[in-house]
Design a protein that fits this description.
single chain; mainly alpha; 434 Repressor (Amino-terminal Domain); 3 strands; three-stranded mixed sheet
């Protein structure tokens, strides 16, 4: 191994993925914490023996730490509930998503792919939503499958369990490739997942190099609402008075939450502030703000990344070595790959 090409940023990322402090890593390696600090700062290069120990500890191939590409940085900073996450949990989630996104970047660069999006060009959130629907040739009505639409336009869904109810998802955007990390824990309804995907897409399109605040969150919500249900298409459906059963029918049609439908009616001036508060209070009293009826909606399953992984293994010798993954880490990261791990030789560098 050519130690001069050791990438300290990847050591830090691997440590964060495991949720270890520098002190904890030093103890696991039986070295001084100051050495770990110097490794990550690039002031000291680990010995070959230490690199082997790091590889075993983190379950990566030795060559993982010698990749030239810098780690992907995430948009978790935008999430409105980020303050309720512990620093350790946030660190682990960001690191896990960034490592998965590194696989995506490699596969996309290999094929010369990028996400099919358009620049904001000073558009308002609603205008950006309308422009993107037009760019993607989306019919002026409900979107049948939001996940398929995103993946058809090379936006990758990184679906894994966050083990954190506080967080639905966050976006990663680098080198013209957009990845959306999505929490696939059981408690997230299909309509909530669809809205989250649109909300995070908005951050990638509207808020590059923008400091997060209440305005960015509101803009992302406005984009998501308009993208999923354009005003000129849904407004005629939102006629008051309306029964709860009719709202359920509209949820089934538009695949957005009942709360979102009520909010849109209020936003369009179809109902007064008093009626809006009454409906929200009614839903809260019956637990419907947290658990709405599903109304026939089913979870959407991302397939783009898994398909690209399978194709890559079919076409590439020593694919695991190319991705710097051990067999166990591959199986942990991509459990949905049909047929499991392809039979290939893995060379340790």
């Amino acid at each position: 191994m050519d130690q001069n090409h050791f990438n300290p940023a990847l050591l830090k990322l691997a440590r964060e993925e495991r949720g270890l402090s520098q002190k904890e890593l030093a103890e696991a390696l039986s070295i001084q914490q100051s050495s770990v600090c110097k490794y990550e700062a690039g002031d000291l290069i680990p010995s070959n023996e230490t690199i082997v120990s790091l590889s075993k500890l983190f379950d990566y191939q030795n060559t993982f730490f010698f990749q030239d590409d810098l780690p992907v940085y995430s948009g978790l900073i935008f999430h409105r509930k980020r303050t309720s996450l512990s620093a350790k949990k946030r660190m682990k989630l960001e690191a896990e998503a960034r490592l998965r996104a590194m696989d995506v970047l490699y596969l996309f660069k290999r094929k010369g792919l990028k996400s099919n999006v358009i620049p904001r060009e000073h558009r308002k959130p609603e205008e950006m939503a309308q422009a993107l629907r037009k760019h993607w040739n989306v019919k002026n009505g409900p979107i049948e499958n939001m996940t398929n639409l995103l993946e058809d336009n090379n936006i990758v869904i990184l679906s894994f369990k966050f083990d954190a109810e506080e967080l639905d998802g966050f976006v990663l955007n680098v080198d013209n490739v957009i990845c959306i990390a999505m929490n696939n824990d059981d408690g997230f309804s299909p309509d909530r997942q669809r809205f989250t995907m649109c909300h995070e897409l908005a951050h990638a399109l509207l808020h590059q190099n923008v400091f997060p605040d209440k305005t960015t969150e509101r803009e992302a919500d406005r984009f998501a609402a308009e993208f999923l249900a354009p005003r000129n298409a849904i407004e005629s459906d939102l006629v008051w008075p309306m029964t709860f059963g009719q709202l359920e029918q509209l949820k089934s049609k538009w695949k957005i939450s009942i709360a979102s439908l009520v909010y849109r009616m209020h936003d369009f001036g179809k109902i007064s502030d008093a009626i809006y508060r009454h409906i929200m209070k009614f839903m809260s009293s019956r637990g419907l703000r947290k658990h709405e009826p599903e109304c026939g909606l089913v979870p959407e399953t991302p397939t783009l990344l898994n398909n690209m992984i399978q194709e890559f293994f079919t076409e590439t010798q020593d694919a695991l070595s190319t991705l710097k993954l051990s067999e166990s880490r591959f199986k942990d990261r991509y459990p949905e790959i049909k047929g499991g791990l392809p039979e290939m030789t893995v060379r340790q560098a």
